[in-house]
Amino acid sequence: MLRSRDAARQIMDGPAPPPADSETLIEEFTRELLPGWPDEWLYSDRERWDQMRLYALESLAQRLLTAQQYLPALQAALAATAIDAIRETAQRTVIEIHLAEGNVANAVRCYQQYEAYLQRELGVSPSPQMTDLLEGLPCLNGDRLRKQLSAPKQAAAPVSDRLRGQAGGPRARRGRNAS
Question: Is the pTM of this model over 0.85?
Fold first, then answer.
């Protein structure tokens, strides 16, 4: 584990060429800290390791992308999305790699899947940085993306306000209407 931490720090420390053993590094960074151990005392150490490996995988993916090593770049970015599916920076990196390769359809598909996932899980949309990646593309459900990109940017309501609006849910409303 110490070797993996040192490797993660080296990758995150600065602009250097991608390491020759990127496949081994990706494999190391996909390993969880003491999997199967339910002990609460491990929670903060696991969280620290998860964050470190996410940053390392994203940095590695960016370096590999810059070096036009698309397959290992995509593998690193996908490993990061497997650790944290909601993390937009990892999702954006996947899309950037597809676009760099000229795989526009894959980039659009990844965007649509991520957008649907965010809507389903959190009721939010991807950030402007994410939609900017696809600006100028002639697709995404007709003109939906073009309209979204040209619409004035509004500040989203805080998550707590959206959740408060859903408090009680449908069952609570039925209970009030039934009396």
Answer: no
